[in-house]
Amino acid sequence: MSVSSYLARRAAQKERVRILYRRALKDTLNWAVHRHLFYQDASDLRGKFDANKHVEDLDTIDRLIADGEASYNKWRHPDPYIVPWAPGGSKFTRNPKPPEGIEIVYDYGLENNS
To answer: How far is CA 110 from the centre of its chain?
Structure first.
């Protein structure tokens, strides 16, 4: 394996691990009811990632990432918290655009004396 392909594969693996950790951490916040519970769960999650930090074999790293992604998909929260104004939130498109053909006049009854 050439050095450039090795470095490219390692960079891709680091990106996948970063994305997996970030998703898992955000999902941990969905499961925790209180912040003190979240902090403990987040610390445990970080410990799981740090336990495999020393692995150097590329195939082993790929297997660990695949196992982590499978575990994340298995234990993902069924009803995650969504910020109210984000897509899927309770306030998203609460006041949608009016349908085509309806004109809204914003002069509020002012007369044009021109």
So the answer is: 48
